[in-house]
Design goal:
binds fe (iii) ion; 2 domains; two-stranded parallel ribbon; Nitrile Hydratase, Chain A; mainly alpha
Length: about 220
């Protein structure tokens, strides 16, 4: 434990040094987080090495590329798609993406008649295991309030124009239940591999504020 503390503190000093070398000061939040971490470490509540592993996982391993592979598989494998819509937590687990204990992931399918969009009106609940960390706008007050009151307006702000007859359904993400939007597979992608299909899947199209890229965009 003592060595961990030492190594970690050293890493922090190094980091602080780098920050100064680039002429930027730490923000107030960063300073407060650091002070809190130091206190909790000294009191033995947390292990900095474990914290480092969690942070590294979210920075490098967990991200929207995981969700993109899930969507690409659903587009190419009807059995997987059925399993995903039936129980998304279970289906993504078969691909190695583990939900946190108690989390329940629900996949909602876009069709020509129905477009799904996800919001957490209270805070920032988000399916981390498949999408990584939520974007800043997802946590913003304007998105959280407007997505419910005027989803079509929000979509238009994001550059998404849907036919007037397409219904929009807003899903409220909570601490227990998270949503993953299954977008419609773009045309002109017949016979594409899962890897190639995954390149069409943007983070925003899995939240419902965007559409997948078109076949031409990545050709
Ligand atoms: Fe939340």
């Amino acid at each position: 434990m003592a060595t961990h503390v030492h190594d970690h503190q050293h890493a922090h000093d190094q980091h602080a040094h780098d920050q100064h070398a680039h002429g930027s000061e730490l923000s107030e939040t960063q300073l407060r987080v650091r002070a809190l971490e130091t206190v909790l470490t000294e009191k033995g509540y947390i292990d900095p090495a474990a914290l480092d592993l969690i942070i590294e996982a979210y920075e490098t391993k967990v991200g929207p590329h995981n969700g993109a592979r899930v969507i690409a598989r659903a587009w190419s494998d009807p059995t997987f798609k059925r399993a995903l819509l039936e129980d998304a937590s279970k289906a993504v687990r078969t691909m190695g993406h583990e939900s946190r204990v108690g989390d329940h992931l629900v996949a909602v399918e876009n069709t020509p008649q129905l477009h799904n969009i996800v919001v957490c009106t209270l805070c920032s609940c988000y399916p981390w295991e498949v999408l990584g960390l939520p974007p800043v706008w997802y946590k913003s007050a304007p998105y959280r309030s407007r997505a419910v009151k005027d989803p079509r307006g929000v979509l238009s702000d994001f550059g998404v124009k849907l036919p007037n007859e397409t219904q929009i359904r807003v899903w409220e993400s909570t601490a227990e239940t998270r949503f993953l939007v299954l977008p419609m597979r773009p045309g002109g992608t017949e016979g594409w591999s899962e890897e190639r299909l995954a390149q069409l899947v943007t983070r925003d199209c899995m939240i419902g504020t965007g559409l997948p890229k078109s076949a031409q965009e990545i050709a």
